[in-house]
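Sample pair:
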Amino acid sequence: MAIEQFHRHSATDDLELPDPERIKRALRRQIAIGMGASIGAGLLWFYLPSPLLIVGLACAPIAIALVIKQPYILCLAFIALSFFRLHEAFPVLYDLHLPLTLAIASMVVLGTQLAIGRIKPYWSRELTYFSLFFAHVTIGLVFGTNRANSMTYWIDTYSKIAIMVPAIAWLARNPRELALAGKVLVAAGLAVSLVAIHNTGDPANLVEGTRVTIGRDMGSLLGDPNDLSLVLLFPISFSVAYLLSPGMSWQNRAFGLVSAIIILIAILDTKSRGGLLGAAAVFGVFALRTIKSRVLTIGIGVLCAVALFALAGISARQSGGAAEAGMVDESAAGRLYAWQAAFRMALDHPVFGVGLDNFPGNFYFYTSNWEGFAKAVHSTWFGVLAETGFVGLALFLVLVGATVKRSFGALRILDRLRAEGVRMNIEAYAIAQAVLAGLASFIVSGSFLTQGFTWPLYILLGLALSVSSFANRMAAGEVTDEDEEEAAA
């Protein structure tokens, strides 16, 4: 009897029959990966019929294995190149067409991850608001005053933003990936800042003789000092979070200190008042969270703002500097004329506005002070009003408010857990603070910089949802200190 029992146990222990369901899932996974790779290769060959693609396909198995295991890396690489314009800051990368390659790869990988069930999608109120606003903008393409212009911007930029918002929210599956996001964003901002500081000695990349730009000769987005300050403004909240978050390691504090100083110097070199106000808002949020006395915080904030404007040399600007007399300088007057024109556009097109990216083309017809060239609107709020109408602005404001509320709620949960002594990934906690500071910076600088249809708000939206998911799982006891099990999954 004992011998028969031994043989019976041995047979079942040594020979495990395959599970038909596991076989089916593995087969579906392989089919999805194969189809995704084939579609991706076909799209790449259509856009880039180059012999170098053969070399890339030879390395594809290694790359596919990496992105299947860590798809968030690919997502962050695409965001870094698209938002920070690294291929324009470093022209050696320009001919590699990396944004297009990564855009196609990101879409293929995201679809593959959803198909094989490695991503656990979820929905939220903020994603509903974003979907409504995106749908409104998309429908507005039909009613735009220049449909071709709107469609080009929608395809080149806004459609990619729409794909990346849920990707950012869904792909951050553990605290380490949140921490990675912060490091990548700061590193990209640091790289662009170093180029900007270097360009202060290059007259070809200076506007008005003092305001630094990047890639002006190639028509780069960074060729406008205000747009450059906007790009640099985004990572500074993350670098300050690494510097000031309690419990951070000395390596991260050093990384945060060095990057914050360099990025701030680059922002000062743009002499953008909107950029300086945005930077002041970042420091203000951390001051409010650190200093108990509100009066002292406000006093320090005012002094810091004055110091920043003095260090930037705003008075030396040809436009908006001390040389311009009067209560309202030329630069400020130009903004007022632009805002007035935006409001008139919305009055004529109250539902859908003049269409995406159509404010400059309509400026001549709506301004009361034409100076021979079209001006940017220099305001997120008036820009959204002009290009999407009163309905679009209402949806946009709801989206911004909901994102801020979500960020506040997540940080409140994490603060409560820390007060209770619950251990957590401190870098993920720093990202939660950075998102809130970044939103404050967006709201303040958005009154003077045009960023309604560019990356900052939407990256912050995706990160706010990721942080909220992390906070809720922490509160439910589903995340350990280092989240080792999920990181290894």
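The beta strands are 206-207, 211-212.
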